[in-house]
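User: What would this chain look like folded?
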Amino acid sequence: MLRLTELKLPLDHQPDQLKTAIIEKLVIKPSELLKYTIFKRSYDARKRGAIMLIYSVDVETTKEAEIKQRLAKDPQVRPTPDMAYRFVAKAPDGLAKQPVVIGTGPCGLFAGLVLAQMGFRPIILERGKAVRERTVDTFGLWRKRDFNPESNVQFGEGGAGTFSDGKLYSQIKDPGYRGRKVLTEFVKAGAPLEILYVNKPHIGTFRLVSMVESMRAEIEALGGQIRFQSRVEDVEIDNGQVKGVVLAGGERIDTEHVVLAVGHSARDTFGMLYRRGVYIEAKPFSIGFRIEHPQSMIDQCRFGSQAGHPLLGAADYKLVHHCRNGRAVYSFCMCPGGTVVAATSEPGHVVTNGMSQYSRNERNANSAIVVDVAPADFPGTPLAGIEFQRRWERKAFELGGGNYDAPGQLVGDFLAGRPSTRLGSVLPSYTPGLHLCDLASALPDFVIEAIKEALPAFDKQIKGFAMHDAVLTGVETRTSSPIRIKRDECLQSLNTQGLFPAGEGAGYAGGILSAAVDGIKVAEAVALAIVNP
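Assistant: Here's the prediction, encoded as structure tokens.
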């Protein structure tokens, strides 16, 4: 097959125009085109009101050999790469000790799935509850201020990504096409087929719930175990080798291969590993606020007269500004047509995140507006970044009134340096509720200064971004893990054999797709370590 890229057509083109574009590009007869499939569809919105769709297609033709020779120097015509996933190993008969996977976020789920598909019958441990029970607990905080520290947005089956936009795109390099394996498994589990070809696929929380359950069922059918409310309290290490894990109830599981896929909020687990002597280092992350605008305003600014077109959906954006104080301010986890959600994992803390359903039809657009922070901003032990996060989460709890309401402020008042006393045209979506105040003390001075400089700069790119009535909600602190558990070329901890740090919590991913890809990579490393000790 041949892959054609950069085929551009008008937004409202007729179905047969794509076929015509393929024939014209390859200079072949209609009868010589056997079939084609869309590999990717994106859009170019740089000219508002004249948006173009951009296609990559895989083509079967009777003239493939001749085309390869004739268009050998054309970068837009290349052989279709082999994207088939191939397992690296098969479990030996009579496997004495099963590998253990800690965590059922995207990383742990895919590590467990691939290990199960290779016959290793993994034991997967999750401190939180199954996804539907967890959903009840999460809504308990959002609707009733009833917080469960072991079952919430961060902890439970599906991980933090379950209560998000379900974004399935990433900028990671993926020469092995593991990302295709992820998307294919998601489709098999019930995701819409379009995630295989749209440029920025997303699923939404409600669909993710049933998909996670489907993947769990496959793991169990293949001989794996998934155990909920099973928090790992200790990892036994003898002479630099993992020997087992101990659960909070005292149960010990004998194993020499542990995938650590705990996510970026398992602070107690990080503390345990640090005390055990596992090598950990501090890493940069970002903190800031959530910002909300009318989604209709973002649509109009991005798409002009074509706003509302079904192929475009709700518009997103990606912004960055480099400040005079040397900091970078950027949008993060932008959720079109979504809501701002309560995402704490500890009592007495307020943390924000963003999510959207598949339809993306809520009235507001929201995004984190965050500023980079580095270990120099929180000197101390490798765990100092965790305490830095906690400090500002506790401050947000205090500013919000001490009842899990979040502190908030209108953008106009924030820029003017005065407290907000009433809302304007933008109604905040955060629940349990928003407490208007002055956010100047909610984050470090350098963060406040940087965001104040960035908002007017962003307004030049998206007219109305710094509108007076836009709402800031604090605080966003869990953009990524504040630590990295370094690993060697075999993906094991630098100083602890048999411990495979993985995903976002270990500092090797950022988002559903990259975490899932890392889970597959680590599963392959575990399999090879078992069959080739």
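The mean pLDDT is 95. If you want, I can go into more detail on any region.
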